[in-house]
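Figure 2 data, in text form.
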Amino acid sequence: MAGPISASTNSVTRLLNHAPMSGLQIRAIALSVALNALDGFDVLAMTFVAPDISRAWGLGPAALGVTLSAGLAGMAGGSLLLAPLGDRFGRRPLVLLCIAIMALGMGLTAMSRGIWDLCLWRVVTGFGIGGMVAAINAVAAEFSNEKRRDFSVAVMAVGYPIGGLIGGFLVSEFLIEHGWQIVFIAGAIATALFLPLSMAFLPESLEYLEQQNSPSSRQKIAALLRKMGHPPVDMPEYSTPLSTKGGSYSELLGPNYRRVTLLLVVAYFLHIVTFYFFSGWLPKLVHDAGFTMPDAIRTSALMSLGGVLGGSALGWIAPRFGLARVVALSMAGTTIMLGCFALSKQLWLLQSTAFLAGVCVFGGIVGLFALLARAFPPELRVTGTGLAVGLGRGAAVVGPIMGGLLMAQGMSTAMTLAIIGLNASGAAIIIAMLNRQKP
């Protein structure tokens, strides 16, 4: 029996791959950037308020590490449990569901009265984020043409540090005046506003619709092509959907995709452990070094600024020098920059090395998302991304907790940063292996 027909052979996909991008496609990718900015704001929001919560509730480093990791645990669950729905029922319904979950979780986080309440609602918020990140990675890839695909995915991923950058500079002053709850109230309102925006401006992916091969999907494809300014496409008819295994973990871990899946999952895990430790503890490390809380939050925002520039640069450089090669170099640079941060004493040095660490660490993350978008066919794209993000972020809960435990045992900040930073070098080695031994 013949296997599923690859999307690359289908007429609509061929048209989109080679035609200039329309306004509808650009708007869909821009919306994916904005949605990822909500992810960046929410995750870094916890780092912005960590010192205030620690002081108000009397939390030590180990307990604070648990609160920082709760959202990651939720993201893992959302990525693993919700992502397959995007391959079975569509990218758009999953995005709308996840926005609603995120808005609810952020709003209830602001009402927390203790560490267990806080952890519960951080898990709920993370659950929505996990599913959404997997879906919008597919959205950015599938609404782009072939020429701009890596750049489109890179721009989507850069939304994360944009959210942290904007949030950091806006929150640093309001936090002092209004308390930590204002951060999550603002996040809940902003997230809720994206529900009607997404309903209005985010159509279903044409690649997903073509895989369905149904009369209703054909009508939707024709309507979307008209909006994009394309003539009707003569699509070959099939008696069944082009793929019957959408969202299948057994297919993803089967002989065709197992090696690349496992390599990307492990690389994502190692690199993301480094990122979440450094970004999660960065404001507190700067504050503990004797600087003010606004200075600490601005340092975190500068890391995000570095991420915006680093991620954008990777999207531009990758087609010229090779995606995997640039990703591996970014990961190796992350280890070096964490070591430089550990040796810095003056505020300007801390902020400069945090900025450069952001360039490197986000460059690696952006590249991993681009690799994930290219590694899997449409019927497995959201699930494949969800598996990497879910296992990576779920396992990355050890990053903030490990850092808290090491420092609670008296280990120096410099040694802790060095130990955690080695994970990024491990990820660089794996990506280099993937580049040399292509499936």
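Caption note: The domain at 20-229+245-436 is CATH 1.20.1250.20 (Growth Hormone; Chain: A;).
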